[in-house]
Design a protein that fits this description.
The protein is an all-alpha fold. The protein has one domain. The protein is 79% helix and 0% strand. It has 17 helices and no strands. α8 packs across α14 and α10 runs antiparallel to α15. About 2% of the residues have low confidence.
Length: 405
């Protein structure tokens, strides 16, 4: 009872605090809202929409079941999740967070995975996409594409290590996962695809329309969280709360040998990744090594903004948030350690060596990534507006058809 009362008072206090600061700083709030809106409709919406719609179609047509059977011999021994986890993992890395949570929730709703398997899966399938790591952060903020290679390798390798660690989570649970033969069977995979397609009674137009509507609804929710956390991060910075907490964080960073100048940028990055990355790039630190460690941690932590999005998505299922939050801390630690271990071979040595001696995978040039980010920001708002208009037309058509019946 006392705990519930404390929770009620805390939530009420946060709401009152937010309302008062919104009234006192209208100009700063408007600027922060515009920044969040620009990020959402110019980058997040157009970059995630194709992946969300494609994933919905692949699930509806049974392709995900097909992939699941093929990847079962790989995903089960490594991560103790069904083969469909390979699809979620790949889509999560390609499109970025919170795609992993979205797809995991869909698979759970389809009963293709158990509750424990879903909690394992969501813990390592929410990653930043390469365009954001290399294009937006490394090239956009640091003007250094080689830094992007280091961050990407540490980010994705750290995520895989988290997945291997989380395979032991819920090992003693009562859930009994579906057993597989452990052998690759294309014939069985095709049978599962056909069986799943036959179960789907919706016509193609209905499936496509549902995919668009569901994707837009999720992206609208994501946009709301981005704007809210953009405003909240700005408010705690204005009134000095961020500085107070950053001073405590600086003590811990000093113990680890990391410059205290990175405390405030890292604290900001714990709330919103893009803002934190920008502040880290502007920090007056003598060595890029420490900036890379800080960047790697906040990328792996996901930021409270992304975590709130994930919590909202999985709230529609029985998937618990705690394993995901624990895995974010674990990923941050692993990714930071990997930067320490790989900074010299993947960054220092590559910078010192001539281009002809670089391995093929490290010859990433800044211009294509910068052009991709610029193109997305240019056409992104138009894509967002057109998609919103299309979804409204679909909803109106369905409403009129329902009335006609």
């Amino acid at each position: 009872m006392l705990k519930d009362k404390f929770k009620s008072l805390s939530l009420a206090g946060i709401a009152i605090f937010t309302a008062i600061t919104l009234i006192n700083f209208p100009g700063e709030v408007l600027n922060a809202s515009e920044r969040g809106l620009d990020m959402w409709w110019g980058t997040v919406f157009p970059s995630l929409l194709p992946f969300f719609i494609t994933a919905e179609l692949l699930i509806g047509f049974g392709v995900v079941r097909f992939i699941g059977v093929l990847f079962e011999p790989i995903m089960r021994p490594l991560f103790n999740v069904p083969g469909v986890g390979g699809f979620v993992w790949a889509m999560g890395m390609a499109s970025g967070y919170p795609s992993g949570a979205k797809l995991t929730s869909r698979l759970r709703q389809e009963n293709q995975i158990t509750k424990i398997e879903a909690e394992r899966l969501v813990s390592f399938t929410n990653a930043s996409n390469p365009l954001f790591i290399i294009g937006a952060i490394s090239v956009g903020f640091f003007h250094d594409e080689q830094l992007g290679v280091l961050l990407a390798v540490c980010h994705y390798l750290g995520n895989a290590i988290v997945g291997i660690c989380m395979r032991f989570y819920g090992k003693n649970s009562q859930e009994i996962p579906e057993r597989s033969s452990g052998r690759l069977s294309i014939y069985k995979a095709l049978q599962e695809l056909h069986r799943t397609r036959l179960k789907e009674k919706r016509p193609f137009g209905k499936i496509l329309g549902d995919a668009v509507i569901n994707s837009v609804q999720t992206l609208l929710m994501i946009g709301g969280f981005i704007i809210i956390f953009s405003v909240f991060t700005k408010l705690i910075s204005i009134i000095g709360i961020a500085t107070i907490f950053a001073s405590f964080l600086a003590i811990g960073l000093n113990i680890l040998g990391i410059p205290e100048q990175l405390a405030l940028p890292m604290f900001s990055g714990l709330f919103e990744i893009t803002l934190g990355a920008k502040l880290i790039s502007d920090a007056e630190v003598n060595s890029l090594f420490f900036q890379a460690i800080a960047l790697s941690f906040i990328l792996a932590f996901n930021g409270f903004s992304v975590q709130a999005q994930v919590a909202s998505i999985i709230a529609e299922t029985d998937i618990r948030f705690a394993p995901y939050f624990f895995s974010r801390i674990l990923h941050g630690i692993f990714a930071s350690i990997l930067v320490i271990l790989l900074y010299k071979p993947l960054y220092t040595n590559q910078q010192a060596g001539s281009e002809k001696h670089m391995p093929v995978w490290s010859q990433i040039h800044a211009q294509p990534w910068a052009d991709a980010v610029h193109l997305l920001q240019t056409i992104g708002p138009l894509v967002t507006l057109c998609t919103l208009a299309l979804s409204i037309c679909i909803l109106l058509t369905r409403t009129n058809n329902a009335k006609a019946k």
